[in-house]
Design brief:
Layout: H1 5-38, E1 45-46, E2 58-67, E3 74-77, E4 81-85, E5 90-97, E6 104-113, E7 121-126, E8 132-134, E9 139-148, E10 163-173, H2 177-193
Parallel strand pairs: 1-7, 2-10
Antiparallel strand pairs: 2-4, 3-5, 5-9, 6-8, 6-10, 7-9
Length: about 190
């Protein structure tokens, strides 16, 4: 059965639309993977352990903290910067405070500047790997364990860097289901007592 011109055109347009939808759906994970592998856009790497090699050259890591508009948390680095040897394990802390009377969940996005340093900055452990929940009035210190890869001195784009800025922005997210269920159960128990 042969297709007429209109049917063929409609079939082609449906095919193009389906292909474009599939590419849009796949673009975010592919972009995230690309950034993680290349350090593009200041995306940092992750590591299971420290570098194992420490150079006799220091670099200063500055710490920056932000919250999205409307996020009520107070968020700041405990220390504004530290100087570490390249390859040395560093441990920094950020402090978050929930001044409200409601539990609030947050997830941190992050990057480093200058962007070209992203592929040479690795985090071993970080509060940004998981969502954080702060109860009303709760204040916490959250660690980030990191190192600057010794390969930074061999990269023509980064070998003269003397400082890197690690920046986080907290975004409000929905409370995790288990936390919400626990709060709902607590509310029902309190209502039953009264």
């Amino acid at each position: 059965m042969a297709m007429d011109g209109k049917t063929k055109t409609v079939a082609q347009l449906v095919g193009v639309a389906t292909f474009m939808g599939a590419m849009a759906w796949a673009s975010v994970p592919l972009y995230d993977w690309f950034c993680a592998v290349t350090g593009y856009g200041g995306t940092t790497g992750t590591a299971e352990a420290g570098s194992g090699e420490v150079l006799d050259r220091e670099i200063t890591v500055r710490f920056d903290a932000n919250v999205e508009a409307g996020m009520p948390w107070e968020f700041k680095p405990v220390e504004p910067e530290m100087t570490v040897k390249i390859g040395q394990d560093g441990l920094a802390f950020y402090e978050a405070y929930n001044p409200t009377d409601e539990p609030i969940a947050g997830q941190a996005g992050y990057n480093v500047a200058p962007f070209v340093a992203g592929s040479h900055f690795s985090k071993v452990q970080c509060f940004c790997f998981t969502e954080q929940v702060l109860m009303p009035g709760e204040r916490v210190q959250m660690p980030v364990s990191f190192f600057v890869d010794p390969a930074i001195v061999d990269d023509p784009d980064t070998r003269k860097l003397n400082h890197i800025t690690l920046s986080y922005t907290f975004y409000e997210i929905d409370l995790p289901e288990d936390v919400q269920e626990s709060l709902d159960e607590g509310s029902q128990s309190a209502a039953n007592v009264n």
